[in-house]
Design brief:
The complex is a heterodimer of chains A (267) and B (324). With 267 residues, chain A is mainly alpha-helical. Chain A is 73% helix and 0% strand. Chain B is built from 11 helices and 13 strands. Classes of the chains: A mainly alpha (267), B alpha/beta (324). Chains A and B meet through helix 1 and helix 6 of A and helix 3, strand 5 and helix 4 of B.
Chain lengths: 267, 324
């Protein structure tokens, strides 16, 4: 365990060095968040009752989404892992007494958390002090906040397990761009990064909530604002746990298979 | 002990000719060729040995190293190292080995080298006490004191390679695989690296397997060489054996003031410039002593040296002989 922790540490420290990228990210996220909120504001003005979420819930959803973007966007890939596979540096990683899946999983967690650590604070701070109704609302209850935190962690693991599948595919394709982009666009849409999931047609939403995509950012963000609570929340968290386990197991099996035929590139 | 028995490995390589039409066709139908990187390679290396693994590019050196370090699965054959099969018991096996791939880096690019070392300490579960001792020793032997506090990206190639080698020694490996450790290094760094490897082999009895194209490395370090070509072991023996096999030819280099050289059978002039002449002597025709007598008859010789063929020349002639 200690080895994975120190691995996490060095990757985390490494990630904290990219401050300029973080400032640029914060600026982008502010702009995007404001635009989205203003756009929805226009719709809500027309008829506030025809929407599946209250406006304040939506605003919290959007700000939290922007603050923790680095945690839940599939396209925040760790390029180092792709490069490791393509250039054949995986040779060194395989020469270590570590499980490669766990090592890369840890690496991903560290990269995402370090990026989020740099980005979330300014966004959250500003969003808390924004005037009604544009600011983030306080959590509905202590229990709700606790479940939000639990679900955040599960969502991160679920997403990382999903992204591991994209990394492993690079062993086979060697040019990961195709799968990277398709997977990124698809998950961005299906996880509610473009339009929050409650705004999807009901039937589609029902199916979608059984998929791993709804178990990523949508769930914790809706738990925070109280949009999902009670038994439904527990049920959805169970689904989240099941998907995380399934994705991790799939990834591990697939990686074991990939490593048997792996060709370490470049002599 | 390292033992390989009839290890074979084939790679599938896609090939196509140049051109748009060819590129288009290959979208639908690819031509693959199979390259046999290793065919029935067998050898045995005892504990504490230092072995040079040589052969032309593409001969299968790196493939063998990767199989021995648990990274690649062979198609057939067996590889057993200290009772473990590297690719089956990868994690147990790699605990006991160190690897340096000269063309790759195991250091974290953006952080000081010491951070990478500490990570390796944790990865290999090295006891803090042992780690401190090893680190101090490595710092002294490889002269790393200032270097290890610098990020890897700001090191020169020679400095980085010294760190790479130190990195592979932190956990006291019993076996060290060095894949072209001196590639691209200048003379000073090469000497430092060689000294260090020799010392580790002698003092810690580390088994060292070294692939290189630098014959001076081989000469300076190893007693035994394995020559591989086209995936097969062609020669397994000591350097002196190899040299005696090819020792018929001697080279005499002379510095002279003035005079004429009279050649006789078995002596041929290789070059003669600026008061320096090089002769090749075939010792099956004329002994070295006779040749020197002959050459010094009419010339005023200031300096003289007799050398055998260099290992480089021997290897080139071996490649030719074995048609690699």
């Amino acid at each position: 365990m200690k080895k994975y922790l120190s691995f996490f540490r060095i990757r985390f420290i490494n990630g904290l060095q990219y401050r300029a990228a973080a400032y640029a990210g914060v600026a982008t996220q502010f702009a995007w968040g404001f635009m989205e909120i203003l756009l929805f504001r226009a719709f809500y003005r027309d008829n506030p009752y025809s929407f599946p979420m209250e406006f304040s819930q939506l605003v919290s959803y959007v700000w939290l989404q922007q603050a923790f973007l680095a945690l839940y966007m599939l396209w925040f890939y760790d390029n180092e892992i792709f490069m490791t596979i393509i250039s054949g540096n995986a040779a060194y990683e395989l020469a270590r007494p570590m499980d490669l899946y766990n090592m890369w999983f840890t690496k991903n967690l560290a990269v995402r958390l370090s990026r989020a650590a740099l980005r979330c604070m300014p966004i959250l701070l500003v969003a808390v002090f924004l005037p009604e109704p544009y600011g983030i609302s306080p959590p509905v209850s202590l229990f709700g906040f606790f479940m939000f935190a639990v679900s955040m962690v599960l969502a991160l693991c679920c997403l990382v397990a999903l992204s591991m599948l994209v990394y492993i595919s690079a062993f086979y394709t060697l040019s990961p761009w195709g799968i990277r982009i398709v997977a990124a666009v698809l998950t961005e849409f299906l996880t509610g990064a473009i339009i929050p999931l409650p705004f999807f047609p009901e039937k589609i939403l029902k199916i979608l909530s059984l998929t791993p995509f709804a178990s990523i950012q949508d769930l914790p963000l809706r738990i925070y604002s109280g949009n999902i609570a009670g038994r439904e929340m527990l049920w959805r968290i169970l689904i989240q746990i099941i998907w995380t386990v399934v994705l991790v197991l799939t990834g591990r099996l697939w990686m074991a298979k990939a490593l048997k035929k792996v060709v370490v590139q470049g002599g | 002990m390292i033992e390989l028995i009839n290890v074979s490995k084939t790679f599938k390589v896609s090939r196509r000719n140049a051109g748009l039409k060819e590129a288009f066709t290959s979208l639908f139908r690819r031509n693959y060729t199979y390259i046999q990187a290793l065919r029935n390679v067998s050898f045995r290396i005892n504990d504490g040995e230092m072995v040079g693994y040589i052969g032309p590019n593409g001969a299968g050196k790196s493939t063998t190293i990767k199989i021995m370090s648990g990274i690649l699965y062979p198609d057939s054959g067996e590889c057993i190292i200290d009772g473990l099969v590297p690719y089956k018991h990868r994690r147990e096996h790699v605990r006991n080995i160190g690897v340096v791939f000269g063309q790759r880096s195991q250091l974290w690019w953006d952080v000081p080298v010491i951070d990478s070392f500490e990570l390796l300490r944790d990865i290999y579960d090295v006891d803090e006490h042992v780690y401190r001792r090893n680190l101090e020793e490595l710092i002294e032997l490889l002269d790393l004191k200032e270097i290890i506090r610098t990020p890897a990206r700001q090191l020169s190639l020679g400095q980085r390679m010294r760190c790479e080698i130190a990195a592979s020694f932190l956990h006291n490996p019993r076996i060290l695989f060095l894949d072209e450790p001196t590639i691209g290094l200048d003379a000073v760094s090469k000497l430092a690296v060689r000294d260090f490897i020799r010392k580790m082999n002698q003092e810690k009895k580390t088994t060292v397997i070294l692939t290189t194209h630098d014959m001076q490395d081989i000469e300076a370090l190893t007693e035994r060489i394995l020559l591989i070509g086209r995936g097969q072991i062609l020669l397994d023996g000591s350097i002196s054996e190899l040299k005696t096999r090819n020792s018929r030819m001697k080279k005499i280099t002379l510095q002279y003031d003035k005079g004429q050289f009279s050649l006789s059978d078995g002596i041929s002039l290789v070059s003669q410039v600026n008061g320096q002449a090089v002769f090749q002597v075939d010792t099956s025709v004329i002994s070295v002593r006779e040749a020197i007598e002959q050459l010094s008859k009419n010339a005023d010789i200031k300096d003289l040296s007799v050398t055998g063929a260099s290992i480089d020349e021997i290897v080139v002639s071996l490649y030719e002989e074995l048609k690699l």
